[in-house]
Amino acid sequence: MREEDMEIAIKVVVVGNGAVGKSSMIQRYCKGIFTKDYKKTIGVDFLERQIEVNNEDVRLMLWDTAGQEEFDAITKAYYRGAQGCVLAFSTIDRDSFEAIETWKKKVEDEVGPINMVIVQNKIDLIDEAVVHSDEAEALAKKLRLRFYRTSVKENLNVDEVFRYLSEKYLEELSMVVEDDTQMLTIGQGVIQNDVKSNSKDKSSKNKNDKNETISLKPHKKRGKKLLMSSKCDLL
């Protein structure tokens, strides 16, 4: 397979309390469907979608994790290796909003800092909201994360969430490749300088060796003067 034909795979985990719409979001994004029926996720579920971002083929692997604490031991293992994370809460569930920081910590405890977004889902139910818009924006600012308001039912901003995470990962990937290229260039420069330096040292050494051979060549007249000088000192 040629390098230009290789795809980029990105693992994204979607976390948050139960019933905030995590499964529906992934179903909507990957299959284009929506169902009102709530079905609790047992452990984890997995779907994927192929997209194109900045002329790059990207395979998004989306992991839907259970929001109930009894599944923590199972779901934590699936956080590992993730390059992106969606922290989701519901417009009509105050507890899910207040748990966002806890979910963020759970993920970072397993994988360290990765690209994340905060998603306020079910904004089609804004008339029943128990989370004020200013609160959500303040939390996103505090955690320094991008914030999206989505409606899986209306398919509002769902694509934008995953596209943003994909673009952020590609940016980081590009920076890593650029750094590696610079290091390789620097390394090659050091090698070339070493070669030049070694050649110069060898040339200088050869020249010095030649000069030393000439200076050590016997010279009768000079030897005689030195001998006479020594005798004068003794007298």
Description of the structure:
The chain is an alpha/beta fold and 235 residues long. The chain has a single domain, classed as Rossmann fold, CATH 3.40.50. The chain is built from 7 helices and 6 strands; from the N terminus they run βαββαβααβαβαα. It has a 6-stranded mixed sheet, with helices on both faces. Helix 5 links the parallel strand 5 and strand 6. The radius of gyration is 35 Å and the shape is globular. The C terminus is likely disordered.
Question: Summarize this, please?
Answer:
The chain is an alpha/beta fold and 235 residues long.
In the CATH classification, which architecture applies?
3-Layer(aba) Sandwich
Overall form: globular
Helix fraction, binned, reads 40-55%
Count of structural domains: 1
Largest sheet report: 6 strands, mixed
CATH topology: Rossmann fold
Q: Which features would summarize this protein structure in a list?
A:
235 residues, alpha/beta, Rossmann fold, 51% helix, disordered C terminus
Topology record:
Elements: E1 8-15, H1 22-31, E2 44-53, E3 56-65, H2 72-79, E4 84-90, H3 94-98, H4 100-111, E5 115-121, H5 133-143, E6 146-149, H6 158-215, H7 220-234
Parallel strand pairs: 1-3, 1-4, 4-5, 5-6
Antiparallel strand pairs: 2-3
Membrane topology: Lipid-anchor
Protein name: Ras-related protein Rab-23
GO cellular component, one term: autophagosome
